[in-house]
Design goal:
Elements (H helix, E strand, L loop, with lengths): L8 E3 L1 H14 L2 E5 L9 E5 L9 E7 L3 E2 L4 E2 L4 E6 H7 L2 E9 L13 E9 L2 H6 L4
Parallel strand pairs: 1-8, 2-7
Antiparallel strand pairs: 2-3, 4-7, 5-6, 8-9
Length: 136
């Protein structure tokens, strides 16, 4: 019997497409789920090295955005997603999906000039996911 692996994060197809474009423009990217302040609780996307992850950040997982078959552009490298430890305590029972909608992006996030902004869609983890993460 094959054991299933679970992830706390996912990405929509439209967000993956934008991430491929942004990777081509800025190089490898990462996300940090903001806990509030200036840009609310927006997922912030940065070129790797522009936001320093510390010991109080939790790695939620990674996004496989693939390559665009029409142009063979994009990234073969997964995009890591982090959240602050304090924020993780609030959201540890939640699965997060990064999506994109029209609008002004967060101030420091790379999608800002594109006319789009990343958002989080969330749902509660199901029983199998809760068990896999040791939360039951």
């Amino acid at each position: 019997m094959e054991e299933r692996t679970y992830s706390r994060v996912a990405v929509t197809d439209v967000a993956a497409s934008l991430l491929r474009q942004l990777t081509a423009q800025h190089g490898p990217l990462m996300f940090h789920q903001s806990g509030g302040c200036c840009d609310g609780s927006a997922p912030m996307c940065y070129p790797i090295g522009m936001f320093l992850v510390g010991p109080s950040d939790v790695r939620l997982g990674e996004l496989d955005v693939g390559r665009d078959p029409a142009t063979d552009s994009g990234t073969a490298e997964p995009i890591e997603v982090f959240i602050s430890e304090a924020q993780f305590e609030y959201w540890k029972y939640t699965h997060l999906t990064i999506d994109v909608v029209p609008g002004r992006g967060a101030g420091f996030s790379v999608e800002g000039p594109t006319g789009n902004r990343f958002i989080i869609r969330s749902r509660m983890l199901d029983d199998a996911e809760l068990a896999s993460f040791g939360l039951v």
